[in-house]
Amino acid sequence: MNPALGKPTILIVDDETINIEVLAKHLQTDYRVLFTTDPTKVKELAEQKEPDLILLDVVMPEMDGYEVCRQLKSQLMTRDIPVIFVTVMGEEQFEAIGFETGGVDYITKPIKPFLLRARVKTHIELKRQNDLLKRLASLDGLTGIPNRRRLDEFLNQEWGRAIRQKNTPLSAILIDVDYFKKFNDHYGHQAGDHCLQKIATALACALERKTDLVARYGGEEFACILPDTPLQGAIHTAEKIQQTVAALEIPHHRSDVANVVTLSMGVVSVTPQKGMNQEVVLATADQLLYAAKKGGRNQMQYATHQPEASETDNNQSSAKMHRLL
């Protein structure tokens, strides 16, 4: 459920508007109801609107409900949305197909309002609990921000979205805390943990859009994924990150570049295309981060990935340096 919308969202899919009206009448008090009569648009709508539950007719022109469900379950962004089939086809073999294709329940017409509301409520609650467990599993235990697993899922999701939207840039920032081992050796590991927690909070605050993601990449490294962001936008975000962390003024008297904690960053922008490997994003950012550290730390190196006509996993980029402090 999207808290900003206040109510869980249900997407009703039926080629007959009268059937949609009947379902909506019994659900609209407690739920935000969306609908479509075109089964070929369901996957796109589900990706855009992220409903908490889909009520899906079986017999429809162009594409039946079973095939719609198969498509939903084959995509990372939509596979966890529960689907309840609502149909006149009440025979056991049709119910079996519904469950085999990924449905969580099967309701036959004519609708019994009490039964409809009860089953919808049950599956909405199960979805809420599953979402909570997924959120907990996707958070880093020390810093409370998303972990590497969530980062990989998010990158996969946004990579696919950028390809579908065509010519949409996607940027990434890979961040390393300068001389963190020296920090730990001098101040102690507990102070090191507190330092990472403060930096994680600062990074999250520095991101200007809810569509961006910051995650702990591992150890003292963090990563940001910035959908629909060209290189200049990513550089702007990196500069804001640096300013936010610098404002913390965390003492680091064992650093070779400053007397406070500083960051090195690799910043890359890519325009995803079919045939490209999404791993090129973090791989290129990692190369740029390495160059920033080798160049003296407390700086960013940035580049735009330039794929060849026959795209491979290799990348071409022209890196530039920008000292931060």
Give an overview in words.
The protein has 325 residues and is of the alpha/beta class. It folds into two domains: 3-137, 3-Layer(aba) Sandwich (Rossmann fold); 148-323, Reverse transcriptase/Diguanylate cyclase domain (Alpha-Beta Plaits), CATH 3.30.70. The chain contains ten helices and eleven strands. The protein has a six-stranded mixed beta sheet with strand order 7-8-6-9-10-11, with helices on both faces. The protein has a five-stranded parallel beta sheet with strand order 2-1-3-4-5, with helices on both faces. Helix 8 packs across helix 9. The chain starts with 8 loop residues before the first strand and ends with a strand.
Question: How would you describe this structure in keywords?
Answer:
single chain, 325 residues, alpha/beta, Rossmann fold, Alpha-Beta Plaits, 2 domains, six-stranded mixed beta sheet, five-stranded parallel beta sheet, 10 helices, 43% helix, 19% strand, elongated
